[in-house]
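Supplementary material to the annual report.
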Amino acid sequence: MKKATNTPSKSPATVLGSEESFRLLVEGIKDYAIIMLDPTGHVASWNAGAARFKGYRAEEIIGKHLSCFYPTEAVQQGLPEQELKTAAKEGGFENEGWRVRKDGKRFWANVIISALRDKDGSLRGFSKVTRDLTERKQAEEQIQQQSKEIMELSTPVMQVWQGVVVAPLIGSLDSQRTQQFMERLLNRIVETNSPVALVDIMGVPTVDTQTAQHLIETISAVRLLGAQVVLTGVRPAIAQTLVHLGIDLTGIMTRSSLSGGLQVALDILNLKVVRKDDSR
Amino acid sequence: MALESISVIKLRDLLLVTVPPDPDDETISALQERVLQAMALYEARGLVLDISTVQTLDSFFARTVAETVQMVGLMGGRTVLAGMCASVAVTATQLGLTVGNALTALDVDRALDLLNAAPSGARCV
Amino acid sequence: MNEPHQGEFCITSENDIVMARKVVRDAATALGFGITDVTRIVTAASELTRNIYHYAKSGVMHWRSLNQDARVGLELTFEDSGPGIVDLEKAMEMGFSTGKGLGMGLPGVKRLMDELVIESTVGKGTTVVVRKWLKK
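Predicted assembly:
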């Protein structure tokens, strides 16, 4: 770049002079707010991108302190000064956080501040490049919200055969969720008049003493109705945990797979699956 | 009132008792009395307690049922609790109630099947 | 639901246990509790009125609807002038009972309700307050 400024060439930019073309380039960028700050943090230059998503026109903002881009609480914490200090000390600074537009609306910003020093090394000011990542932030939050909702989803209880219901548990079981699950399972058993319920714990990440207690409670309640639970999806890791924690599941039918559980259910119901050609 | 509200029906060698929806303590005690007399009179080998209309199962009720199951057992019979409501089962479990050695069934039909199918032993709560 | 609904019911005989259950069932159903919660509340009330009848012979049950912080609930208060509970901590332990083998009593009731507050003075009497909140 230095070479380009010193050595004139025949490219169109040189017609205007390299510094002028660079200024136009920066000013024209709309997706990034690119601004210059003086060493004390006051705005020295302002481009189209900054005007577009911060909302100030150049003449309104030049000379103002950068703290007007920050939310009040961040200013109270001294965040703008800290960021400049870090940039001055380490040469640069990058961060993400909430910033404020002229109209007071917040946006999620990625900010890069670089210290600008002259040949002697004395601080001349800062460049500050800001991107608006609100959409990305919102998408991330939406994903977080959705995964939370998935955790809270009610467990479906499905009838898979006359007399057999299946409930695949997914996610962790707290007492609130267990209560809801227990009610739904018992109601479905009564509605469908099913003597067997397969409760599948393949999708339960960890089984601790509390979770096991909740499962045992559910199984006891099902027994009061006159039905039986077969606990399926007991993975190796869950089997190990149950034994290591000393959780006693004696008297509770358990199987490693759902198909194994279905076999138990058919045995209880005195049913047998036969191949069509065998029956001839 | 208590005694009239309970009828013990003899079905071959089994007894069927329908428990009223909201029995008071007197009725529950009377129920035990009636059942044991009928056990002796008919030499029944099993008892079905239809509790499908029962809305409240508290500790007194549960204790009387558990006792009755034990007494019927001593007289050579097995007891099946039939048709407990889901809400009652959830509540009883949370309260920590048990019904002793009673067998359980989803409804009276299944209870009769259960008593007819297995002469002794079989699954217990 | 703007004005709190409330009432009281005297427990003096064994038959009042069943009557108290009816009062509580109606109040809980009117507030919009689902069948399982109604069963929990009624069963808890049954245990607590029975405690009054057995230990103190007589007492009073107050009930009122609650409306706090956009939450709706039901509060039941059971008051008696009976012998009181000597060791409250022990009475809250699972399986402990001094009476007619009704050991599920207080800890069981606590599990059925959202809140349980108990005050007891030996020789003066016992007050038990239980609350259940309507789940949204």
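The domain at 6-133 of chain C is CATH 3.30.565.10 (Heat Shock Protein 90).
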